[in-house]
Amino acid sequence: MTAPPVLEVKNLNTSFLLPIGEVRALRDISFDVRRGEILGLVGESGSGKSITGFSINGLLSPPGQVMSGSIRLHGQEITGLTPAAMRQLRGAKIAMVFQDPMMTLNPVLKISLQMGDALRAHARLSEREARARSIAALEEVGIPAPEERLDAFPHQLSGGMRQRVAVAIALLHEPDLVIMDEPTTALDVTIQGQILALVQRLCRERGTALIWITHDLAVVAGIADRILVMYAGRIVEDGTIDELLDTPAHPYTRGLIDSVPTREQRGSRLRQIPGRMPALTDIPEGCTFRPRCSFATDACAAPQEMRSLGTRLVRCCHPLTEVSA
Amino acid sequence: MSEPILTVRHATRRFGEGGDLVTRVLARLGLIRPRPIVTAVDDVSFELERGKVLGIVGESGCGKSTLGRMIAGLLPPSAGEIILNTGDGAAALPMQMIFQDPFSSLNPRKRVRDLVGEAPRVHRVVAPAELENYIERLMQRCGIDPSVRDRFAHQFSGGQRQRIGIARALAVEPEILVADEAVSALDVSVQAQIINLFMDLRDELGLTYVFISHDLGVVEHIADTILVMYLGRVVEMGPAEVVFDQPLHPYTRALIAGVPRLDRRHVVYAPIAGDIPSPIDPPPGCHFHPRCPFARDRCRAERPENRKVMGREVACHFAEDIASQKEPSSWPATQTA
Prior knowledge:
The complex is a heterodimer of chains A (325) and B (337).
Chain A: E1 7-18, E2 21-33, E3 38-42, H1 49-57, E4 64-73, E5 76-77, H2 83-89, E6 94-97, H3 101-104, H4 111-120, H5 127-140, H6 146-150, H7 159-170, E7 177-181, H8 189-206, E8 209-214, H9 217-223, E9 226-231, E10 234-240, H10 241-246, H11 251-259, E11 307-309, E12 312-314, H12 320-324
Helix pairs in contact in A: 4-5, 5-7, 7-8
Chain B: E1 4-15, H1 21-28, E2 38-49, E3 53-57, H2 64-71, E4 79-84, E5 95-98, H3 112-122, H4 131-141, H5 158-170, E6 176-180, H6 188-205, E7 208-213, H7 216-222, E8 225-230, E9 233-239, H8 240-245, H9 250-258, E10 267-270, H10 297-301, E11 307-309, E12 312-314, H11 319-324, E13 333-336
Parallel strand pairs in B: 3-7, 3-8, 5-6, 6-7
Antiparallel strand pairs in B: 1-2, 1-4, 8-9, 9-12, 10-13, 11-12
């Protein structure tokens, strides 16, 4: 008997209630994350990957709203919690790191105050204790001369440093679940490597469950245990990193993988997916990927259910693994 | 070997020089502090053959965009020269640029027909009677349905806008295109479409590209020649397969090792330490020495010149040593766990 997952999401539906009507941003999202697991949540703009993160963390603001479904943290339902109760969880049990560290950190407050606030939101600490813990946290994320940095303003730090500070703040209370929304997209390659190394080490050491949201399959290929691929508000494939990347079952996953330039096919044409993702207001009936899919048949006009293929799940009536076999 | 279409000799660009008369006088008198001078591009030389793709890579602040703008003629070099050898004046405007952000590089008040059609009309690339057909052909060629020619830029997605930007650049029949991070803002599946469009256009029109990107995967895919920059200087330059298969400069090695790839799974990242230094006050000697695991005293004092080593140019005092050495344990790399 294994321990219950840190996070269980079941049949989550999130919508934006706009004057033009209900726009369904997430449809029937189900997955779970275990202790120490790194889950890659991959999709293109508008696929709903960030909204998934926001829904879990209770950061949706009107007109966005979780319509139905359940989100359980350590078995406890958190969808119906009051804002005050949610605030107790956020930062302490669930933490989030965003793409742009300049927008996350308040530009007119020193790092020390921002870290101190985050610390004292969930723990009774004196000024001095808060400072000591902040210094320790900055040291842990590899910031040189943390005492001095603590008295700096965000704009005095480089982008990589700012993102380290954001990671340090997220990990202050040793949360059980960390959601990272494109944390390295704005960073340079060598700095991205540093953040990847840091997050990987900290999560493995502490057994933190991590959801890494990205549009870049290659970034999560290195660190994730499992990948969810999202398309137009739905999860289309869910599998371990090796099976999903080596033998993608959903045509969209296959298309994404083929779109990444690699050295093996230097100079040749990339196999591209024609067209683009439909707007959420204009989702096709049946399989949402059907209009762009080169494998589409008449059967694809019917709504697609998640199918189980051994250890993975795929939302496709004729998965590629069966066609080629 | 054909005549190079583009020759860059000792191109240098400094920012913050001069200032107006009052500033200069006050600075001379010691009444105000002189403005810091940033050498964004420092003594860059290369030649580019017709029909080839040059990839310029590097991280923020390395000067790749400044170099691109100098090549495109948008910025004059502070020193050195940039020579275009574009045939017998056939091209109206031999050099065009494509920008990163398809949202801010298209005038939001203009319709597609004007965005694409204005330059060829003004420069008389086509007869006025032919213009409509010309615009239609260009749009079709770049994968935009000509029936949307009366729409405004905001009515298109990012990928579509980038296609409009490309159509606009092609409208004056250029020979060289400078693409500055032209696919960086796009989603993966759309990025692949635009990369394919770039390659098709090169084959059809014999275009020469200067392709600037921080994304090594993209550059490796399309470039014939790679130029790696760090803090304004070229650290390594050579044929793409030579540089990617056996990078010699420690920075190039760190960059290539740090690129996430689909076939690198379950890795333990051991990245190169340190931040990119400020270009206002770059480290002396070799700019890379504070982050370099191979750095010795000579690197701290003496600027390495670009030398020919194993089929490429590299600016490192110890390139031969590094080539023959096995990777030291402190070497930044990604290892499989």
